[in-house]
Amino acid sequence: MADEAQAPPAEGAPAEGAPAEGAPAEGEAPPAEPIKHTYTLFYFNVKALAEPLRYLFAYGGIEYEDVRVTRDEWPALKPTMPMGQMPVLEVDGKRVHQSISMARFLAKTVGLCGSTPWEDLQIDIVVDTINDFRLKIAVVSYEPEDDIKEKKLVTLNTEVIPFYLEKLEQTVKDNDGHLVLNKLTWADVYFAGILDYMNYMVKRDILEQYPALRGVVESINALEPIKAWIEKRPQTEV
């Protein structure tokens, strides 16, 4: 019968005369191969500000060159850096600076950003808060005058550190074991990556009384690609 319906092609098979799935139609060019970028990370032989970046590289399985500059090499290399500072990330031969901006870029690359501008804002707020916290610790840690440093340490340990960690601890409790959005984001990875540096600056484990935050760090460090990185990375004090 002229109006009789034809059976559909078997699932996964193309209709007669149609190109196979994923194949270009007649006259169309084949799809381009994914662009493979080259990455080089420049920093000293320490974790510190570069470790969140290394965590993100590890999480995404991205190959990169981890250049660890010695103190002797740094004076000659310094003028070649955008602002005479490190860490610096080189992508396809172009160098950029600002560690959090670089982390955000890598987070987008490995799929750890939000799905909307509003979600990205929530993540940025948490990461910027963590960085504010780190800077408040650093100001005291790198104070050259012992008398001044001793006074600042009192305020740091009795007021500043508890204030930030209590807020962040509650944030994790409110977000199903994460720092934001009730799911894994680069805020979790950033915090886990920067923690050793903050502990180093205050000479103690700042999460001793904050189990929810410790849980975030432990879960990140247990992720297979990050766990593998931790096991093979150079052993450094900071």
From TrEMBL:
Ranges where the GST N-terminal domain occurs: 37-114
Q: Which reaction does it catalyse?
A: RX + glutathione = an S-substituted glutathione + a halide anion + H(+)
Q: Which GO terms describe its biological process?
A: glutathione metabolic process
Matches recorded under Gene3D superfamilies: 1.20.1050.10, Glutaredoxin
Residue ranges constituting the GST C-terminal domain according to the UniProt record: 116-238
Compositional bias (Low complexity): 1-30
Keyword Oxidoreductase assigned to the entry: answer is: no
Tell me yes or no: is Transferase among this UniProt entry's keywords. yes
* Region: Disordered, residue numbers: 1-31
- Superkingdom of origin organism: Eukaryota
Write out the entry's keywords from A to Z: Transferase
Q: EC number(s)? A: 2.5.1.18
Report the top EC class in one word: transferase
The cross-references to PROSITE patterns, in alphabetical order and at most eight, read:
GST_CTER (PS50405), GST_NTER (PS50404)
GO MF, one term, reads:
glutathione peroxidase activity
Pfam short name (any one):
GST_C_3
Annotated family: Belongs to the GST superfamily. Sigma family.
What is annotated about its quaternary structure and interactions?
A: Homodimer.
> Per its record, how is this protein called by name?
glutathione transferase
Name the lineage: Eukaryota, Metazoa, Ecdysozoa, Arthropoda, Hexapoda
